[in-house]
């Protein structure tokens, strides 16, 4: 009885502790959701913010107060003071996980504004705190806002890929959509690194994982973006016909909402048109531009101007192919005007695509000197900023040298183009071999895991079998022992049991123990016994 009581006390204590811990966790969740910082950041835009009211609500010298002062200084471009206040908020022991996420985010923004590059250690702190802050688990815009500050270099992109991969592997409560967005960001970084095998594998994985999403519009959105990037790989290799097929897959997937459909597909429409121009299918290119007009009208204004740059650039390319110089010039001037308005550079490298078209126009005009100057300047920028436009610039320079009859420069440029193509082929081969190795390792690990799982299951079944056998043996032993002490006919204890019991009394008795023996004689019992 005492043992059972102790067990109940232990179980009750454990349950009480568990309930208290759950209650504390739920309280922290609720308190964070209603915290002043969380509510403030939900409305924060980063421009022309009035900090007066929030500063009055916060205690002086609290980490939240220092954080708000840091934001205010950052908005005023006082980076040094902003970093100072953010650092003081970070070092305060009363900072909660949510506040630490925001502090590290804006500390990293300070480094980016100062040096044009985020800070690896701050980004690491950001992810450490994010993994324990449930309210921001799925804030993919915040996550990309951090890693995008280090993607200008190969080392930075490698670090960003590793950080993102670690995050999705370690964060158990990540939603399926957040998982796919982060996977897609990783695929884009692989593409920037020219790691084409990993890029293709990542986006094929996104397509497979997207099938698990029940909402058809969201499912198709992720598949469209994945197909677009897969087509971009072919486009980068100038395999335009294969790229067109994959772009068509993306465009064919329906999304019911017109604006969301336009946002998902605009790039696929634009790049498909460029591919049609590359293969010389001008009619299909014109049709593609007309189709893109239908979706452009549904885009928000900040995207429309960027898309218009691509559209007019494609129109200029078509007119160049048709030898209509004046019309091509008109479209390119519209592109320059739109680029001048696009101060935020909504679309990465759209100015470079326009620059390439200007070179083509100059060649068509037979203004070879200016065409060459543009190409050489673009090549210098390409080398300085690692823009990966070599395979687009060199063919235009070859065309110029062919027309000018500069054979030596033609041969030299041809060798450079050949070297670049060989580098790409070598990269593809290395990526493919590495992919096969990693795929083999993954399959081997899966096999080993399966073998381990089978071994564990066998061990569990063996333990269950042995436990059952022991129980059966114990029960049989008790049964045999019981049968040896009971008369089978009368089902009462026999003489063997009497002797055993008397032995216990005599040899195991305690002082002052009282016991008695009662003897009964049944008349004519022998006749009863003989009969039965």
Task: Write out key terms for the chains shown.
532 residues, mainly alpha, elongated
Structure description:
This protein is mainly α and 532 residues long. Helices cover 78% and strands 0% of the residues. The chain has helices spanning 2-33, 36-43, 52-57, 63-75, 79-91, 97-115, 120-130, 140-147, 154-170, 176-192, 196-210, 216-236, 240-252, 258-278, 282-296, 301-321, 325-341, 350-364, 368-385, 390-404, 407-483, 495-508, 525-531. Helix 4 packs parallel to helix 6 (97-115) and helix 20 runs antiparallel to helix 21 (407-483). It is elongated and about 140 Å long. It starts with a helix and ends with a helix. Mean pLDDT is 85; it is low at 22-31.
Taken from the alpha-carbon principal axes, the silhouette is: elongated
SSE succession: HHHHHHHHHHHHHHHHHHHHHHH
The amount of helix comes to over 70%
DSSP strand content:
under 5%
Which regions are unreliable across 5 or more consecutive residues at pLDDT < 50? 22-31
Summarize it.
The protein is mainly α and 532 residues long. Helices cover 78% and strands 0% of the residues.
List the helices and strands and how they pair.
Blueprint: H1 2-33, H2 36-43, H3 52-57, H4 63-75, H5 79-91, H6 97-115, H7 120-130, H8 140-147, H9 154-170, H10 176-192, H11 196-210, H12 216-236, H13 240-252, H14 258-278, H15 282-296, H16 301-321, H17 325-341, H18 350-364, H19 368-385, H20 390-404, H21 407-483, H22 495-508, H23 525-531
Helix pairs in contact: 4-5, 4-6, 5-6, 6-7, 9-10, 10-11, 10-12, 11-12, 12-13, 12-14, 13-14, 14-15, 14-16, 15-16, 16-17, 16-18, 17-18, 18-19, 18-20, 19-20, 20-21
């Amino acid at each position: 009885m005492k043992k059972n009581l102790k067990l109940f006390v232990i179980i009750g204590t454990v349950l009480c502790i568990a309930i208290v811990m759950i209650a504390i966790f739920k309280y922290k969740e609720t308190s964070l959701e209603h915290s002043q910082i969380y509510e403030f950041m939900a409305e924060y835009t980063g421009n022309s913010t009035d900090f007066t009211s929030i500063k009055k609500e916060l205690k002086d010298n609290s980490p939240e107060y220092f954080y708000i002062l840091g934001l205010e200084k950052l908005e005023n471009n006082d980076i040094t003071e902003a970093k100072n206040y953010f650092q003081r908020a970070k070092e305060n022991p009363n900072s909660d996980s949510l506040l630490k996420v925001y502090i590290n985010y804006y500390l990293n923004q300070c480094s980016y504004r100062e040096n044009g590059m985020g800070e690896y250690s701050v980004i690491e702190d950001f992810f450490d705190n994010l993994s324990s802050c449930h309210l921001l688990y799925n804030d993919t815009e915040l996550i990309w806002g951090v890693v995008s500050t280090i993607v200008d270099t190969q080392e930075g992109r490698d670090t960003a890929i590793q950080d993102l991969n670690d995050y999705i592997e370690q964060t158990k409560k990540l939603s399926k959509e957040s998982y796919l967005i982060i996977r897609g960001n990783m695929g884009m970084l692989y593409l920037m690194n020219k790691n084409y095998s990993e890029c293709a594998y990542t986006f094929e994985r996104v397509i497979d994982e997207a099938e698990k999403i029940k909402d058809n519009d969201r499912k198709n959105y992720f598949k469209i973006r994945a197909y677009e990037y897969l087509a971009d790989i072919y486009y980068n290799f100038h395999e335009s016909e294969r790229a067109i097929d994959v772009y068509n897959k993306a465009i064919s997937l329906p999304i019911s909402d017109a604006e969301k459909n336009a946002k998902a597909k605009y790039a696929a429409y634009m790049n498909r048109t460029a591919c049609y121009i590359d293969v010389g299918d001008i009619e299909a290119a014109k049709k593609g531009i007309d189709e893109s007009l239908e979706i452009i009208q549904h885009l928000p204004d900040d995207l429309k101007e960027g898309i218009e740059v691509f559209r007019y650039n494609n129109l200029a390319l078509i007119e160049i192919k048709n030898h209509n110089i004046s019309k091509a010039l008109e479209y390119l001037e519209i592109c320059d005007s739109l680029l001048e308005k696009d101060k935020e550079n909504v679309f990465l490298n759209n100015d470079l695509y326009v620059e390439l078209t200007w070179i083509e126009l100059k060649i068509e005009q037979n203004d070879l000197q200016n065409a060459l100057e543009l190409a050489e300047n673009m090549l210098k920028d390409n080398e300085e900023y690692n823009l990966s436009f070599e395979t687009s610039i060199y063919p235009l320079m070859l065309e110029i040298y062919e027309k000018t009859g500069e054979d030596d420069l033609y041969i030299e440029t041809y060798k450079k183009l050949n070297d670049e193509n060989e580098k790409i082929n070598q990269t593809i081969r290395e990526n493919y071999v590495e992919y096969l190795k990693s795929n083999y390792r993954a399959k081997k690990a899966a096999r080993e895991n399966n073998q381990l799982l089978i071994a564990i299951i066998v061990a569990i079944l063996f333990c269950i079998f042995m436990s059952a056998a022991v129980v059966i043996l114990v029960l049989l032993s008790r049964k045999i022992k019981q049968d040896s002490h009971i008369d089978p006919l009368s089902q009462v204890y026999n003489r063997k049991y009497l002797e055993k019991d008397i032995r216990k009394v005599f040899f195991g008795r305690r002082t002052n123990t009282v016991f008695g023996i009662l003897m009964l004689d049944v008349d004519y019992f022998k006749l009863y016994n003989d009969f039965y």
